Amino acid sequence: MNIAVVGLSHKTAPVEVREKLSIPEAQLETVMPHLCSYPHIQEVAILSTCNRLEVYIVTTETDAGIRELCQFLTEKAGIPLAKLRPHLFILLYQDAVMHLMRVAGGLDSLVLGEGQILAQVKTTHKLGQQHKGIGRLLNKLFKQAITAGKRVRTETSIGTGAVSISSAAVELAQQKVETLYGTSLTPYKIAIIGAGKMSRLLVKHLLAKGAVDISILNRSTKRAEELAKAFPKADLKLHSLSDMMRVVAQSDIVFTSTGATEPLLTRSNLEGVLQTNHSLMLIDISVPRNVAADVDELETVHSFNVDDLKAVVAQNQESRRKMAMEAQELLEEDVAAFDIWWRSLETVSTISSLRSKVE
What tens digit of pLDDT does each residue of 223-252 get? Predict the structure, then answer.
């Protein structure tokens, strides 16, 4: 019996590869039982975010289990394994355990120390249980990782002042308008497509940077209204997605953050509504991407995706590396605790076997 993780992340694969392996929450109900039906996979947990897809498995035979999982991934991505393999990482037992601890602690994130990943690890654990993918071993591993993630945030300062994907996106927008036009965000018409957690953070950071003209577009009006209630002093304009192209055409900067599996903005639908000399900045923090790559063919459109945030994030990273080293020491304690528990199972199994022989 072994624990393994196979995956890819912002460190190993560009967004155009990551989006092909994104697994929306709605698909987990079928994907997890499917993976558990493979002969050598007994347990499975799937962590899918904008910056990573990681599949944790308990396998009865390591090589065979990993082959089965890689076969699933290549079928999911529609990419031959020979082309997908350079983007994948494979970690076994203690390396896999430490990796999950680092992920939960925010040490493997694009934004070092960011807090949202811990909530995503918790969700992975919850959904893994709900869809019967997680058994005894992964249940214990994820509980230990969640504990480790909490310790990192309470016993070190790594989370203090950490930027998020959303704040980095706003910072990127501000840098671009300052470079191109020498102004702040205040005079610009800004639209946000989506009303989830990332969009809420976008609003928070846009307001902090002086933005005043912000429109929210979302499929669910109720969710957009809930977002607006969180910012009672801001005059947020709410629109349904049916108004999307009209609002986009009137905007200067558009952020996209939805769970759509196909692009919402493309060259064809933009060139049909944009005025000839209207300059538009698109910042897409979704995976799969909400903005098609072909929008870059439009002369007045400047498009950025989540991979373009790396330069912004790097400015914040260096001062946090010492904190990361402190956090790593804490994580090693949690890895050791899991290892002790794992070994205790072997002891119990041996004792049970001896008893049965005596009887």
Answer: 999 999 999 999 999 999 999 999 999 999
Q: How many domains does the chain have?
A: 2
Domain that holds residue 211: 165-309
In this predicted structure, what is the pLDDT of residue 161? 65
Q: Is 36 a catalytic residue?
A: no
CATH number, residue 146: 3.30.460.30
Selection from 36, 37, 124, 18 nearest residue 77 by Cα? 18
Let me know whether 153 and 44 are in one domain: yes
SS (H, E, C) 118-131: HHHHHHHHHHHHHC
CB count within 10 Å of CB 146 equals 20
Residue type, 205: H
For 81, what's the count of Cα atoms within 13 Å in the CB-facing half-sphere? 9
| Per-residue pLDDT reduced to its tens digit, 243-280 | 999 999 999 999 999 999 999 999 999 998 999 889 99
Please, which pLDDT band fits residue 316 given cuts at 50, 70 and 90?
low
Per-residue model confidence as pLDDT tens digits over 120-147: 999 999 999 999 999 999 999 999 999 9
State the average pLDDT for the chain.
Answer: 92
How would you list the strands of the sheet with 253-256, edge to edge? 237-240, 213-218, 189-193, 253-256, 280-284, 301-305
3-state helix, strand, coil in the chain (%, to 5): 55, 15, 30
H-run or E-run covering 55: strand 52-59
> If 0-12 CB within 10 Å is exposed, 13-18 middle and 19+ buried, where does residue 249 land?
middle
Both tokens assigned to 314: 């790097």
Same domain, 217 and 170: yes
- Asked whether residue 91 falls in the same domain as residue 201, the answer is no
- In the set 50, 53, 112, 141, the catalytic residue is 50
